[in-house]
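Q: I have 503 residues here and want to know how they pack in 3D. Can you give me a structure?
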Amino acid sequence: MYIFGRERKVSLKKLKKKPNILLITTDQMRGDCLGILGHPVVETPHLDTMAHNGAIFTNAYSAVPSCIASRAAIMTGLSQKSHGRVGYEDRVEWNYDHYLAGELAKAGYHTQAIGKMHVHPARFLCGFHNVILHDGYLHTYRSKKSSATESWFNTDDYLPWLREKLGYYNADIIDAGLDCNSWVARSWPYPEHLHPTNWLVDQSIDFLRRRDPTKPFFLMMSFVRPHSPLDPPQYYYDMYINREMPAPPIGDWVEEEDDGMRDALVYNGYGGKLTDSALQRARAAYYGSITHIDHQIGRFLQAMFDEDVLDNTIILFTSDHGDMMGDHNWVRKSIPYEGSTSIPFIIYDPGNNLGIKSGAVINNIVELKDIMPTLLDAAGVEIPEKVEGMSVMPLAREEETPWREYLHGEHSFGVASNHYIVTKKDKYIWYSQTGEEQYFDLEKDPMELHNGIKDKEYSHRINYLRKILIKELEGREEGYSDGNRLIVGCSPKSSLSHIKEDS
């Protein structure tokens, strides 16, 4: 067995212990931003090592590519129809029957979350014994209109810590002048060890010291980056700012002159054709943030080794969604293209406790709702009947097992509200407000450069995928489908009624 490329012996006694579970999530990291997948620029040596000695899933997706909905899928194992979050909406309470952490806690695990949760209320535990919280910019909780219990001071643990370390009361994460949804970039203005990425790992290492040694642990390390603000420490910004980068892919379907939703000069806009220099800075900071996270993950793996828990820990690494980063003149997420929907998904079992095929590369369609059943399966914990995801452990062991053919994804997004059906080989997209359709042959065209919706050679396949979407949307309260056709112009919702009724 190997860690960091070195052979290591593991005692049979240790292999018989119930495994620890480590879930590492990033925010807004593209699925292609891994060195092991051949990315031409970004460096991820520790994640590459985990994938090389574990299993990597090359068709992993976020069904609703924005923060809250994605985290609902991770925590509950439910599809968007069931967890009810089909777009972005703050301040909708969480009220589900089962949570990943809660099921592990009932099975005797000591559970801890550190970093971003993005739930409501902000201090809701989602089954964890304890949460050390940093949701980034805190969104609505920064408002002076918030109640005392919802103010940033009570809903964030990192910012008070930062103010204490810097020694002045007005220090803030907005001091650099960057927004939490902006392509504007610069380096972190404070010492590197004060960056929220380092802080999260500091807190995680401290958990190893403070954990109950009589119990296995479940730790969720939830990084806020590489989500903007795009502010890596100077070292990591410098790694990429002068590096030659390939131009982002621009499809033949892109309307270069369409300013509609895509106002390139707006600092927190969703897209448009950025200047070359602005895009260079944005990508340098984005890639730098990813490498920074990678190095800090390496730091935590070393701490686990030092604590003698690494070989009895199952690690799953993923992200909640991606970032377009200039692809097809878009930035941010919420849209149905690969940059936004595709995510990294790695399972690493350093002690080979579960028989994962080392170096396995798996192309089955997996998604975030599969995380809960996967980790419960790894822990030997019963999976609740309501869970709709599937354990990927048989795939990781390269066992023959029935699997889904496709994923239905969506996002309520104003005039750009969308639905997509993706398989291992292709993708069908429907924009519900305009009726626009797109089809991409992902085997021949993984960068989605050609919209084949009018190509005769794909007509049968397009009809087949369209029928799948019609059935997926049949009975939805928005009225998108009557079971026979897609209905254009229905009012999209960000949250389905049943979760608001339960709140």
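Q: Anything worth noting?
A: The domain at 406-503 is CATH 3.30.1120.10 (Arylsulfatase, C-terminal domain). The chain has two domains: 2-398, 406-503.
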